[in-house]
Amino acid sequence: MKQWVLTVWMTVCLLCLAACAGTSGQNPVPSGEQAPSSTVTSAAGETSQAPSDEPSVITSDSSEDDRAPASTPITPESPEPSSGNTRDTVVVYFSATGTTKGVAERIASVTNADLFEIVPVQPYSAADLDWNDPNSRTSLETNDPSVRPAIANGTVRLENYTTVYLGYPIWWGDAPRIMSTFVETHRFDGMTVIPFCTSGGSGIGRSGSNLASQAGSGHWLGGDRLRDSISEDEIQNWVNSLH
């Protein structure tokens, strides 16, 4: 009996030894840990992982200069008044403060005429227009009949017109010297030239006839001083009186 019990006990011990030998080569993960996910690291040990929410960027092989420019509207140059029209009348004027401009625009409206503004290269400032200052620009120009201020916007072709209204302010009883610049650089052959002026009170005087002498061409009428507040109806009556 004792021998049988000893045999059973020895058999159990042998089985336990065999079970321990079968598990000796495994490396189990400790309870509560997880195996790390697979990551790629740089040589410096930094994780090489693309950041989230990074926008996609599309690059072009062409440079900025190689791409066609965006379409932009092109503003055409103002045509010369005589180009491409059948109008036979033009209103040419110089206006330092806007007074003569307003009258010129009303004349053009009444007569269905083209408009051309004489623009000086050097605009006239308030100090230039101070008639109380004997050294102001306009005072010096008036006292020197040889002065010819330059015109900034070139010239206007007059050959297709038959009537020219010529407007200007009165400075010291005469037309500004820039008007002499204009009439001496244009021909008025075959045209009727009608001077008109604006002023604080002086009439047109001899300004029109002086310009006619400097122009040396054209059929010049006497002209008139027109109020800055003149209406289109009054302008129409004035135009009718010229014929």
Describe the structure.
The protein has 243 residues and is an alpha/beta fold. The protein has a domain at 89-241: Flavodoxin domain (Rossmann fold, 3-Layer(aba) Sandwich), CATH 3.40.50. It is built from 6 helices and 6 strands. The protein has helices spanning 2-22, 99-111, 137-142, 177-184, 207-215, 232-241, and strands spanning 89-93, 114-117, 163-169, 192-198, 219-220, 224-225. Helix 4 links the parallel strand 3 and strand 4 (192-198). It is globular. It starts with a helix and ends with a helix. Mean pLDDT is 76; it is low at 4-8 and 16-83.
Can you give keywords for this protein?
243 residues, alpha/beta, Rossmann fold, 6 helices
Question: What's the layout of helices and strands?
Answer:
Elements: H1 2-22, E1 89-93, H2 99-111, E2 114-117, H3 137-142, E3 163-169, H4 177-184, E4 192-198, H5 207-215, E5 219-220, E6 224-225, H6 232-241
Parallel strand pairs: 1-2, 1-3, 3-4, 4-5, 4-6
